[in-house]
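User: My collaborator sent over this chain with a note saying "see what the structure looks like." That's all I know about it. Can you take a look?
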Amino acid sequence: MKVAVVSHSPVPFRHGGAERLFAGLTRALDDAGHSADLIKLPARELTLGDLVQSYRDFSELDLSHFDAVITGRYPAWMIDHPHHIVWMLHPLRGLYDSYPTGRFVDTRLPDMPEVRAIVEMLDRPMPSPDPDELIDATLELAHAVGRSDDLLAIPGPLARAVVHRLDRIALDRRRVRRHAAISATVAARADYFPPDVEPTVLHPPVVMPLDEPTSVGDLIVTASRLDRPKRLDMVVAAFRRVEGDTKLVIAGEGPEEDRLRDLAAGDARIAVVGRVGDAELRDLYREARAVAFCPRDEDYGYVAPEAMAHARPVITTTDAGGPTELVTDGVNGLVVDPDPPSLAAAMTRLVADRAFAQRLGTEARRGVESLRWDQVIDVLMAPRRPRRRKRPRLVAVSTYPLYPQLGGGQLRGRHLLAALCEHDAMTAEVVSVSTGGGPVTRHRLAPRVAETVVPLSRRHIDAETDLRLVTGPVSLTDVAAGLMWKATPALVRELAVALEEASAVLYVQPYLAPAVLELAGGLPSVCDEHNHERALKSGMYPSNEGGAWLLGKVLEIERTAVRSSALVTTTTEADRAAIISEYRVDPMRASVTPNGVDTDAIPFVTGEERRARRAALIGRLGLHPSTAALGLFIGSGHAPNIDAGRSLIHLAPTLPHVDFLLAGRHSEELHRSNLPPNVHLLGTVPEDELELLLGGADMALNPIHTGGGSNLKLLTYLAAGLPVITSAVGARGIDAANAGVVVSGLERLGDAIERVAGTLGEERAVAGRSYVEANADWRMIGARFAEQVNELVLV
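Assistant: Without extra context I'll predict from the sequence alone. Here is the result:
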């Protein structure tokens, strides 16, 4: 795999254990057969504005040319990549365990909208996996108040609150494929990891090259950054109690260097030598009798395993954190109370007993030899294991949101999923995509059915726009999602997390099957074919090279989806036969699950009530009271519906006594200039207006002449008590004669409308409602579907 190891370069720059760790990890990845690169961006953290800008820089870093990315520190872990691995060293500790907790409050809140906006975001109970809103708001505040304002201080209460939220977003399970920590100490600290994450502990191996072990020397050595948490003043105070000629060498640089020199003054045995290179440090380890390393609550402490790898015992303290995970008292080192007398006694013991020091050092070397880079790489790069759930969980994938339910496919998906989860035996999550932009959103479709809607990335949308240059102006968001799903990292991470907990998958259409099969290829699946997609698209795509290429991709995706599924459902018998024949599907795995309606939710309106609603509808639309007939056609923005709308516009001048009401998204796609006066384009209508249309029209029209599957809206018409005139294509999937439906060719549609308009239609209305209740109610259809899924898929 091509792997990026990503970290920040501190400003001002300093070279420490983290820098050595990331360099060693990069080399180890190469040695393991991967192709790795170490990528660093400068990061400043003088003020909150500086730090948040660094989070922004990493969030915008394009690493799509890598197969995987490994990070270990803030702000680098804000990168967005579908295969993001975190091996945590630490967050900004000055805003975590070493800074007091508490909710941010600022006295200027009422007067500063920039502060108020941030507080409102921080008060939201669950962070969005999208950090941009909070980053933008914080940078706007920094611009408004200026760099020197106390609000932006680090450490400070606002900085703590903002950074905690950004880290919570960055480390969310939806953004990170695997969580690991360099020590159990780091893994156990409060708030370092999200509450639903259990990180793997992976102790880093020694990075520096090692020689064959030598006999212990005569020095007490310590090496680290010279600052207060390392407690080198305690080491100096302890060593002053040690008698004899043994020397203490302190290597490193940092803000405590001058103070340590003052503390060592007057004792010629103590040398503060400053920063040393790797070769000099190895020489010090070889000359050491023991290495004293006594920080307070250290993350890991690279000094300890380095000393142990050189066969030198480590003296540390009970509260040192990471080092105590490697050092066992009396076995490979000494672990003592954190005070100068205890530390001095340990030093004296090892100085006085060379053989004991040698024995501890030999065990120390043996212990750290088990820390191997190949084992670290195997764990970091291993696939994430699924979590076990108490009840089966279905993940449905869709190339359009199922909410709001504006079209037949959305209604079908919701009702089938609700039926699967009706008896508390299963839960379901829909992962869908949208072109609307904004953050990832979540909502509930039914009591145990949730939906996560992922906006397509700008990169994805731009690529789809480029694809239209080849194919022409056709609708291709669905097939483009199947081809370019990796271009939206948020989709990859949402799918990966959802599939990790899945028992089975439902393809609401086949197009996201390639994504599911790559992310979780072993899961059983159901492919719900609303339409025979290859046949449907062949009537929609242009007859050119681009159209032929795109149709070939549809065929590949559909074939992959249906052949890999344990159950394939279609809306009509004709589509089932075509799928079986074209893709060689086992007939026992293919069945018809027709479209349906919720008859309880659709009022059946006839007689005087329909005449009253008709009058109200005429008044609402501003039509003449003497209007002879109202013909209704409802359709989404799907190409066959747009074509049907054009057919009605063409027909309208020949039937001036009929007012044609065209509702739904398709009517927004039709040209409004030079419309016949009896054609009314209503656009997408709200629920109350839709109910008035269904209850007040005289007839429903369904002149569909292209497309596949069956027409759910035809069932809605019948349930509402509307006489229906449809084409043969529009009647697919129903028994037209028993439903009282008039089937007509487009060339005779006008005659059929004249015939129906001249009757009251009561008999047809009753026949239509009775047919729907007996054959097309969602409860009945959903129950049969759930039975098939349980029998063929969840076995």
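A starting point for your reply to your collaborator: The two ends are 35 Å apart (CA to CA).
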